[in-house]
Design goal:
Chain B: It holds the Pfam family Proton_antipo_N. Chain B: Keywords: Antiport, Cell membrane, Ion transport, Membrane, Transmembrane, Transmembrane helix, Transport. Chain B: It is a multi-pass membrane protein. Chain B: InterPro entries: CPA3_Na-H_Antiporter_A, MnhB, MrpA_C/MbhD, MrpA_C/MbhE, ND/Mrp_TM, Proton_antipo_N. Chain B: GO terms for molecular function: antiporter activity. The complex is a heterodimer of chains A (502) and B (929). Chain A is built from 21 helices and two strands. Chain A is mainly α and 502 residues long. Chain A has a domain of 203 residues. A two-stranded antiparallel ribbon of chain A has the order 1-2. Chain A is globular and about 70 Å long. The mean pLDDT of chain A is 90. Chain B is an all-alpha fold. In chain B, 71% of the residues lie in helices and 3% in strands. Chain B has 38 helices and four strands. In chain B, the strands form two sheets. Chain B has a two-stranded antiparallel ribbon. A two-stranded antiparallel sheet of chain B has the order 3-4. Chain B is elongated and about 125 Å long. Chain B starts with a helix and ends with a helix. Classes of the chains: A mainly alpha (502), B mainly alpha (929).
Amino acid sequence: MNPEVALPILIPLFSGALSLLFWRLRSMQRLVAVAGTAALLITSLWLLASVSRDGIQVMHMGNWPAPFGISLVADLLGAIMVVLTGIIGFAVALFSLATVGRGHEAFGYFPLMHLLLAGVAGAFLTGDIFNLYVWFEVMLVASFALLILGSEKAQMEGAIKYVALNLLSSVIFLSAVGLLYGLVGTLNMADIAQRLGQLEEGGLVDVLAMMFMVAFGIKAAAFPLFFWLPASYHTPPVAVSALFAGLLTKVGVYALYRVFTLIFNQSPDYTHEILLWGAGLTMLTGVLGAAAQFEFRRILSFHIVSQIGYMILGLALFTPLALVGGVFYIMHHIIVKTNLFLVSGFVHRLKGSYQLKKLGGLYKSHPWLAVLFLIPAFSLAGLPPLSGFFAKFVVIRAGLEAEAYGVTFVALLVGLLTLYSMVKIWAEAFWKAAPEDAEPAPEAPSQREQWLLYLPIVGLALCTLAIGLYGAPIYALAEASAAQLMDPGRYIEAVLGTEVTP
Amino acid sequence: MILPWIPLLALLGVVVPLLTRQRGRRFCSLATAAPAILALLLVFSQVPALLAGDLPRFQLAWVPQLGLDLAFRLDGLSLLFVSLILGIGLLILLYAHYYLEAHEPFARFYSFLMLFMLSMVGIVMADNLLLLWLFWELTSLSSFLLIGFWSHWTDARKGARMALTVTGAGGLALLAGLLLLGDMAGSFDLGVVLESREAILADPRYPLMLVLVLLGAFTKSAQFPFHFWLPHAMAAPTPVSAYLHSATMVKAGIFLMARLHPAIAGSEAWELIVTLTGMATLLYGAWFALLKTDLKAILAFSTVSHLGLITVLLGIGSPLAILAALFHILNHATFKAALFMSAGIIDHETGTRELGRLGGLRRAMPVTALLTSLTAAAMAGVPLFNGFLSKEMFFAEAAASPLLGGLSWLLPVLATLGGILSVAYSLRLVHAVFFKPARKAPPKSPHEPPRLMRAPVELLAALCVLVGLLPVIAEVPLGLAVEAVLLTPLEFHLAIWHGLNLPLLMSVIALIAGVLLYALHAHLRQFGRQFSPMDARLIFEGAVQRLMTWSERLTVRLENGSLQRYMSWLLGAALLLGAIGLLQLPSLAGARPTQEADGILLLGAALMIFGALGTVATHRYRLISLLMLSVVGLVVSLTFARFSAPDLALTQLSVEVVTMILLMLALFFLPQKTPRESSAGRNIRDLGLAASLGMVVASLNYAVLTRDNHGISDFFIANSVPGGGGHNVVNVILVDFRGFDTLGEITVLALAGLAIFKLLNRLRLFMPHSDGEGRVWSPDRYPLILTSVSQALLPLALLVSAFIFLRGHNLPGGGFIAGLITAVALILVYMARGVEWTQQRLDFQYQPVAIAGVAIATLTGLGSWLFGRPFLTSAFGHFHIPAIGDIELATAMLFDLGVYLAVVGATLMILANLGKLTTPHRPSKEEKH
């Protein structure tokens, strides 16, 4: 018995149901939000500990042996992703206590947050391709409901684009799963990988790989499939933006990593070459999009896109070092990007706006907030000794070693433009004096709320610093996880070969 | 180990001012200086070891997998630089203590200054290429904060951004270069790299690496054409300019070239690029130093020029050239820092830095005048000052260099030209500020600064003279530094007099011509004015602006807000990638033979095609379109039945009914006809896209279906009864084999219900009273027949759904279908009687029903943990119940109950909320007014 494999899914599911039952009890909902996400974080660490100690953990749902039932599989990448889900969930839950107003809470913010986390954790842990689809749907519906929280016009417009484009992704994904099932007659990913290895239908498999690439590429917001993201991420309450920014696209990236290391690894010259182009264009279009923006959250949203490019680059180069870089990048990015959104939310509470034009003077009035912005911002731009430095560094080194000079140049250039973008925010919101005609924020946070706002921001900033300063163990973790990805045999053996738990 | 303490003390210096801020500026300044003084003493304590030929090193693994170690060394080169950094840093601190205004956040300033000191110390002491780069970036960052210290001032913000962007770009190039370098040498350890010269020079990637590394060095050291950020960085407070932009940071690039000299220098490419860049910088900087009128701008351009001079020497690369380069680094740091501080004093005491408003200050500030004259003389290279010595060595090396072959005479000529300009601008600086009468009075009436504010300048000026008179004292540190660069000791002797030779002649020419040039410089400025003034910042910002506009245009093109556009991008990508793949298939059809198509199949296919086309064709008439769509759904359901999947057929049928009803409810609020929105061209585009995508998917389907697979389905059929306790394989799959999927799906359903509840909750809709043609809706809202039929049907339908539910495990049916049937029955009642009537009688919330469903399913799964089994393990058994008889009960049925409840709850939640929109229960539009 290894309940820690299923608990990261079941705890948020249960917390979600619980807070739905206490629909009217605000205090109870808030309590469940903190306790539930804390429990998620703890079990996820438990899971990571057992995966790093005992290797890949598998749980066969319903005690049906693989490939007949659904298996939950936690390899290092999955476990790492779940830990990140826990961290972000907990941080955002804390932040929500002070930012999500009574009105939004009444419309089920907290239960939706839990269910979203359940979907995310499910996607990271499942070893079954159709089950992955199911968790994608849970995520999609939950995130849609979160997006329309408040039902403002801008939100509706963003949410409709969000849901329409993501449903398209679901359709493509589902068709691809169906076709794949038609080809190999199984849904368990380890089994698919094994059977595809024996199949002599390379060309057909490549076409299916492309369908998965498009479906997951939409989820991951890669070029030219990212449009839903900048259309919607800046519209909902900031805690929701932060949650999305940290986790949602990364599920798509995770799925790409899973599928293109485990299943579609037969013709990397073809599939991964396309990924490489996608990575380069994603980095570039994202960062150029950000350069044209003057709204705090829109800038950050476009940077998500460009950073996704780096992660895909790690996968596309498909060398051990590149995968280390990719995994490292994902870890770093989730923490940093969520934190930046949280900071933007804090700024919004203080100044009542996300428009850079209307901001200013925070360097003087809130120097610590300024420092707390600089840490994730410079980390995002890849400055040492913060987490982003190592992430970017490894990816670039992998690019140079693979002699992919073109895309490495793009990666470096995008790093520079990212820096420029962050400096733009810094100069406008922090350095510049507040504009004369600035209106006071409608609801400046109370002292107690400030603490609640600072707490997650400080926590995540410390994570960023720790990943940078205490890099060796994190790197070792990423390295071990990349080694597992490069050797899908271990995954297949763990799922299909081991004895079914009695 | 002493070495790590040097950077650690500097790090301490970053924190100390923030902690001691409360105790007053004097205490804070002293407390900040203490760690730096200690660090300097520690550095000096290592000198005996160095003289004995040791190389103090320290190493601590950081991220060993990447080759990144916390490794420090203190060789001669490091010693020279680290003493410079700490020593001048301390002087700057003293100076800043007086320079900053009372209200300014001095602690923050000190902290940034110390952060910068830390990063510089790190650069020059790093024994690992990656560590070096790390500190390199830290200098960019700390200088960014320092330049922008007066952040309320636009120039400061812009200057800071520009400096960061340019040095940041160089930093990234350098990173790539160092990565390549480390790869060539096989290690990032400096010791290894410095000894791998052959391997590096022979590597085919050498030119690329060289260019990248030099890009880093040139941007940092403000070499032409990357020099433009430096004059604008002068928006910083003067202590910063004196420290960063004359003595230390801009020397980092020079340091890097010296540091890597043993490993990468000596190739023809190096000599050409470095020497020529240096020469261009030397002349360009000197020329503009002569034209500028802002005191700090003059000094900035002269710094650019001197950096060029050092670069030329490093490019020439002979042992004596290296010596001259290092010597000039030392000399330049002393006289230029002093000059900057003098400029700061003048600015501080007079309130202006414009030459036009200064003049005749020798009366008000005699000591400052003297100090400035001395240091300016050193800058000009006047004999008996330190600058003279290194400049003469420069002339000698320029004359001796064989570079450029037959044109090698060009080098000494250009060097002399640089010397002439340098004399001229130095002279101008002193003359215009102190001697020439002022044209306009300065804003403040000038007087001497506080005694201690001048002290650093006095000390540096004394050093200039001392070294100029007694060059011997510089021999020891220079000897150590040269040895570190050349890797072998060099015999040399510094002397003032070398006899009558070519360099001396060049010096003399420079001095005389320089004075003449200054005398003529009014004409020169006239000449200079003919060129339109080139403000680097405007150009830079213009470039940035262009990039912005360009990216904005691109973004608007890509992301124009149109969902149709996004959809077509997505579908286009899918089409392209799919089609490319299909093109490469050798043949579409697989080995499995196709079934004979009979009439019924063909009819079904034709119906489906008709339905699909009809949906599209009638899309402007929503109701008809919807009916067409339902044709497709029904034929799908028939297809399932035809291929022996009664469960699926039943499910599809009920789903079809429920969705149709819900859609119709939604359609009620929409106009019945939509206007024609798309142009013909767009229609054709969309048609093409849809058709080709359909063809790709159909081809894929065909390809897959004509291939055999040996799937896992046999297992399900074999294990359904013995393992799952049910004869209906589909249901056993749903609730047992793949129950986890079902759990997820009912969660989705419950979520969808919630989402719609939220979506509709605040919606205020216009309620139409008539249909599209203007016919009023029938006043008979609840027709009698429907009412009575539905009422009679309800118990029957509930009975049927109970039956379907119970038999589900063995025969077609199950919780999902049963739930849908119940929902349909209730929907009928709603429609027949209206929301109000029904809700009075069915007085409960649907939301808890749906949640209870999900909770029951989850808890059923968790139950198996109590027995030590994995989640969702089912159990079943046969029980004998009196009066009913033998009955089989399975935990899967409990799970199925959860499914049933979730389906009923979610469906009715959606319906009730849609229905509620039509009732006066909700505050409607009219009521609000």
